[in-house]
């Protein structure tokens, strides 16, 4: 649209940079850069895509390389996965995995049906409640790729997000180890047993040989899978559907087998051979007989050879073998056989305990020392309920599979809740059915996969299906874990992980894949599926715990942005889910739970200390805000009790011309005094209006915050712009703080250059600040020679902090040294208290009383009473007072002379202006435009009068006599200074009562002179003026 052109509109060059060309909204055109039109905003939202780091586009980048090897740009494809393919089936594939195929029957056989159902109900309730919370978070806005890490970090902040995200990454990585170990166990135990490299010569060495085989084959499998992921992730995605099809066929085969057992319960391969009531491993014999008839001749069987020293009938056999007969029972007798009743209760035992059928009769043997070498079925680990919970829980940890694919979903807000909850529901139904029909003695069915015996038409359907299921799940873990680590690294919240945010040119996380493979190898070297499963259970439970916590927190805080489309959630359900997760962590393994929490805690503190600052509008900030609001409302506006009183600081800083802090040691002293406790507000004032000084105010705040960080001062910064410094500091003293959280003490530096400055504003502002703090009943601390105060890195040696307690104004003088000595800078200093006695005072009794008072105050200090005798005013004092008043009078004369010069300059300016106007405006008959304030005659008269007064004033200066009140004050300052310098000149710090300013403002300059004389000859001095209330007490 061309620019509007009209003879009635003045188009200037200033309009050339204006990007807004319309005329209907010209009223808002000046703000278009910061506030765009609604139409442009909606256009940006319509073009938004959350396909940011999915696997698919990484591989498509390889396919889009041009002839010169450069990557050509393609139009971004919208995510196309729906609920079934994108969420339901991936969740189902991860839930119905290695634990279901390899360990569920053993768990049921050990724990019994009732306790197995309890395990299933607990774990499934945990995942269902977590899925509800996750659904609420996932439907509260667009969820980019990143899944659970994105949801937790944006809900609970970068610290929790990074800690839980890394725990989830470790859980996913160890899950890859578990799936690879499951793959190798299926391969070596059920598919190709002869492929074992390490073979056991003795029965007791079988477990170690199996572990070594798992390590070798597992490492090879991990290497192969990592290469596949590195070279072609798109093939992993294509194979995922094939693996998923195998899982579904396996499940259907199991259902078919369960139905068949109800009608044909007797399968030849299902027999279990018992010797007495002990279950036998029937790997090395075909017939469950001691002897058999062959051509009317009784011969021994292979079973005989396992228990006897020769195949002869008169051979010496194991005692238990001789006393008991062998029997055959059905391994899977069918639903109508009473198997459910027999498997109701559990049978736990230690490692090496023989598996026995309690319903069979047997004759015990006297010698049981050889039982471990016999082919009995025995526990390979010590079993107990909590162990089984930890081993089983990984079978229900697939609920995040859908949310982890959020970047590839067509409608994540719709698909994630429906697909995840439906997958959990149907998998739970199937698992409960399996629990109800699984046999107890499954390890003795000729080395077959126990759950495979249920399958129809062949056990190989389950064996092959479980093998491919474990392979697919392992590849998915090795695909997802590096991308999760890459997302955390690219967020920049963990500095040392930033290298893992890089990868190949197409975005593939090469370095993250390398680290994932290394961590996965640790799980492979553990080699035991039962040992790895509880480890990843801890990390997944930690993740689920914080998903529930995030949902509960957002719900209770009722933040305006919390508007999930999924409505079937409640904060109570989320808290129940979080509590259940925490309980399961300690039920499964209390020491693993503590280790996982320690790892998460260390990561949290590291991110808090060294991580990049991120503001994601998380719930923790909202929680802090609500907690602060609640605390401020509860905090009474009245002053706290004396026992709880501590200095809440308002630190008034002066800035230089570059808006940098003039006295950074004042911040150091505040840090040493506060030690991070209580309130600290650092304030400063810039002259001018906020409209013209906005940029300078922000720069000053940044400089002050930087200095606070350097000096380790914890607190708040507030810079105001005011027409003059006096009003600005007054506003800070009156308004700093909020509610009951207000300052009660003002700390400032002594204006050291007040004598050299011709402008009296600096010391007048200082005195007015003293008056205002007194009127506001606030304590005042003034640091003299503050640049010589120690820094936070200094360590003062043996020395003293001297307190000169002249007048009592609440006990702040004695409290401050105690607080300072809590800091390591002043820790070695001793405290000395000096008080002044007059002629009428009993100094000995005063010392005893003061020592008793300090004893009740629980303060360790040396006490000394200094006697100040009445003496005549010395000539030195008299002359010093006279010089002070003469200087004051001369300054007034100089001020009058300056006023005279200003008036003369104004007269010259008026003359020049009048003559210039007369030349240019001769024809102008209107009124004069220049109004002369001073005529020549008037000016000469006034100057002569002022000169006469000045001459008279100069004569008066040399003839004047000092004011008696000033002489007495100067006498006090001189005498007290002599005593303080004599006693405390070598002290590290001197604390002294600060006398108040005169009520008559005409004596303000004299007041500054008195203080200067009082502090003369002292290095570090802190003037203390109490706020008019007791701040220290002898009572507990």
Automatic annotation (TrEMBL):
Disordered as annotated region, ranges: 1-20
Listed transmembrane segments: 80-105, 117-143, 163-193, 214-233, 239-258, 511-529, 535-556, 568-585
GO BP, one annotated term: chloride ion homeostasis
Gene3D superfamilies documented for this protein: Amino acid/polyamine transporter I (1.20.1740.10)
Alphabetical list of InterPro entries matching this protein: AA-permease/SLC12A_dom, KCL_cotranspt, SLC12_C, SLC12A_fam
GO molecular function per UniProt: potassium:chloride symporter activity
Alphabetical list of Pfam families matching this protein: AA_permease, SLC12
Subcellular compartments: Cell membrane
Membrane topology: Multi-pass membrane protein
Similarity field: Belongs to the SLC12A transporter family. K/Cl co-transporter subfamily.
Name of the protein in its database record: Solute carrier family 12 member 7b
């Amino acid at each position: 649209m061309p620019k509007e052109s009209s003879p009635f509109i003045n188009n200037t060059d200033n309009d050339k940079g204006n990007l807004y060309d319309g005329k209907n909204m010209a009223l808002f055109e000046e703000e278009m850069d910061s506030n765009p039109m609604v139409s442009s905003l909606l256009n940006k939202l319509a073009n938004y895509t959350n396909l940011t780091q999915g696997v698919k586009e990484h591989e498509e980048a390889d396919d889009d390389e041009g002839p010169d090897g450069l990557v050509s740009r393609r139009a971004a494809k919208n995510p196309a996965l729906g609920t079934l393919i994108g969420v339901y089936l991936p969740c189902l594939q991860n839930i119905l995995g290695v634990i279901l195929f390899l360990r569920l029957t053993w768990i049921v056989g050990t724990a019994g049906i009732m306790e197995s159902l309890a395990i299933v109900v607990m774990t499934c309730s945990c995942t269902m409640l977590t899925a509800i919370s996750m659904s609420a978070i996932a439907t509260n806005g667009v969820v980019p790729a990143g899944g659970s890490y994105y949801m937790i970090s944006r809900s609970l902040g970068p610290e929790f997000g990074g800690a839980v995200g890394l725990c989830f990454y470790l859980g996913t990585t160890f899950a890859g180890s578990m799936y690879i170990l499951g793959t190798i166990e299926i391969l070596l135990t059920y598919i190709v047993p002869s492929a074992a490299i390490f073979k056991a010569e003795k029965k007791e060495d079988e477990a170690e040989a199996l572990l070594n085989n798992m390590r070798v084959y597992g490492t090879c499998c991990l290497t192969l899978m990592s290469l596949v992921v590195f070279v072609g992730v798109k093939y992993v995605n294509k194979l995922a559907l094939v693996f998923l099809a195998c899982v579904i066929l396996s499940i259907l085969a199991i259902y078919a087998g369960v139905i068949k057992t109800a009608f044909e319960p007797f399968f030849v391969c299902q027999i279990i051979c018992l010797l007495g009531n002990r279950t036998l491993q029937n790997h090395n014999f075909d017939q469950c007989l001691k002897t058999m008839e062959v051509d009317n001749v009784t011969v021994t069987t292979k079973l005989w050879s396992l228990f006897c020293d020769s195949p002869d009938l008169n051979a010496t056999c194991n005692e238990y073998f001789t006393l008991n007969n062998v029997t055959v029972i059905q391994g899977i007798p069918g639903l109508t056989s009473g198997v459910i009743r027999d498997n109701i209760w559990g049978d736990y035992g230690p490692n090496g305990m023989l598996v026995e059928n309690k319903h069979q009769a047997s004759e015990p043997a006297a010698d049981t020392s050889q039982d471990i070498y016999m082919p009995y079925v025995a526990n390979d680990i010590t079993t107990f309920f909590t162990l089984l919970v930890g081993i089983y829980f990984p079978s229900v940890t697939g609920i995040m599979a859908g949310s982890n694919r959020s970047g590839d979903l067509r409608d994540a807000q719709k698909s994630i809740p429906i697909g995840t909850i439906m997958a959990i529901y149907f998998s739970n139904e199937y698992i409960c059915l399996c629990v109800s029909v699984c046999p107890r003695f499954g390890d003795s069915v000729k080395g077959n996969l126990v759950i495979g015996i249920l399958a129809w038409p062949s056990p190989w359907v389950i064996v092959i299906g479980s093998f491919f299921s474990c392979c697919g799940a392992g590849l998915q873990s090795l695909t997802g874990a590096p991308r999760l680590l890459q997302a955390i690294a690219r967020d920049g919240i963990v500095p040392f992980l930033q290298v893992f945010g890089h990868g190949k040119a197409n975005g593939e996380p090469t370095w993250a894949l390398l680290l994932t493979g290394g961590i996965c190898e640790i799980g492979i070297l553990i080699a035991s599926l039962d040992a790895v499963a509880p480890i990843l259970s801890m990390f997944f439970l930690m993740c689920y715990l914080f998903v529930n916590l995030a949902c509960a927190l957002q719900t209770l805080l009722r933040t305006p942005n919390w508007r999930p489309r999924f409505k079937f959630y409640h904060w109570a359900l989320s808290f129940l889910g979080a509590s259940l997760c925490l309980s399961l962590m300690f039920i499964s393994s209390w020491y693993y739970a503590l280790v996982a929490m320690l790892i998460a805690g260390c990561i949290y503190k590291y991110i808090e200390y060294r991580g990049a600052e991120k503001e994601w509008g998380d719930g923790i900030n909202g929680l802090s805000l609500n907690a602060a609001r609640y605390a401020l409302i509860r905090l009474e506006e009245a002053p706290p009790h004396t026992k709880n009183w501590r200095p809440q600081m308002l630190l008034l800083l002066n800035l230089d011309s570059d808006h940098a802090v003039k006295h950074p040691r004042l911040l150091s002293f505040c840090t040493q005094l506060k030690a991070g406790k209580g309130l600290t507000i650092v304030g400063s004032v810039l002259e001018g209006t906020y409209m013209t000084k906005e940029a300078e105010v922000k720069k000053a705040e940044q400089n002050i915050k930087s200095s606070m960080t350097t000096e380790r001062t914890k607190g708040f910064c507030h810079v105001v712009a005011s027409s003059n410094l006096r009003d600005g500091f007054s506003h800070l003293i009156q308004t700093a703080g909020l509610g009951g959280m207000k300052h009660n003490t003002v700390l400032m530096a002594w204006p050291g250059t007040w004598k050299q400055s011709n402008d009296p504003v600096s010391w007048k502002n200082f005195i007015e600040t003293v008056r205002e703090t007194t009127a506001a009943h606030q304590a005042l601390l003034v640091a003299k020679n503050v640049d010589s105060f120690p820094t936070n890195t200094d360590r003062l040696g043996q020395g003293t902090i001297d307190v000169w307690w002249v007048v009592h104004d609440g006990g702040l003088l004695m409290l401050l040294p105690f607080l300072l000595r809590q800091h390591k800078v002043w820790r070695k200093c001793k405290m000395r208290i000096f008080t002044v006695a007059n002629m009428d005072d009993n100094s000995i009794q005063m010392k005893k009383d003061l020592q008793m008072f300090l004893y009740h105050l629980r303060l360790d200090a040396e006490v000394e009473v200094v006697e100040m005798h009445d003496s005549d005013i010395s000539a030195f004092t008299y002359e010093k007072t006279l010089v002070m008043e003469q200087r004051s009078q001369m300054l007034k004369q100089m001020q009058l002379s300056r006023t005279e010069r200003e008036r003369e300059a104004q007269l010259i300016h008026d003359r020049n202006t009048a003559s210039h106007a007369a030349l240019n405006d001769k024809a102008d008959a209107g009124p004069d435009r220049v109004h002369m304030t001073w005529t020549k005659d008037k000016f000469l008269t006034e100057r002569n009068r002022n000169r006469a007064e000045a001459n008279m004033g100069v004569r008066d200066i040399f003839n004047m006599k000092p004011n008696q009140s000033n002489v007495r004050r100067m006498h006090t300052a001189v005498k007290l200074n002599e005593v303080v310098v004599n006693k405390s000149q070598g002290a590290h710090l001197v604390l002294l009562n600060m006398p108040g300013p005169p009520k008559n403002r005409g004596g303000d300059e004299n007041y500054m002179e008195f203080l200067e004389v009082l502090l003369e000859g002292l290095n570090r001095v802190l003037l203390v003026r109490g706020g008019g209330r007791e701040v220290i007490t002898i009572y507990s």
